[in-house]
Amino acid sequence: MMNRDFNEVMFPPPGRTPREDTAAVMKFYKLPKAFPPEVLAEAKRVAERLDTPGERLDLRKKFIFTCDPVTARDYDDALSLETDRKGNRILGVHIADVSHFVIPGSALDREAYKRSTSVYFADRVVPMLPEELCNGVCSLVPNEDRLAFSVFMTFDKKGAMTKRTFAKSIIRSKARFTYEEVMTVLSGGVAKKLGKRETKLVREINELAQQLRALRFSAGALDLEVPEAEVVLDGEGEMTGIVTRPYDESHQMIEECMVAANEAVAQELWTKGVKILARLHEAPDEEKLMMLRADLRGLGVKMGNIANQQVFAQFLKSIKKNPLYPTIVVMVLRSMKRAVYDSTAIGHFGLAKRFYAHFTSPIRRYPDLTLHRQLADYLAAGVAKARVAPKTLAKWAAHTSEREEIAAEAERGLLEIKKYRLLEDQINSRQILDYDAVIAKCAPFGCFVEIPELAVSGLVHVSLLSHKYVTFNESDHSLSAPGGKSWRVGDRMKVHVARVDFKQRKLDFVPCSPRRSSR
Question: What is the three-class DSSP state of 266?
Answer without folding.
Answer: helix
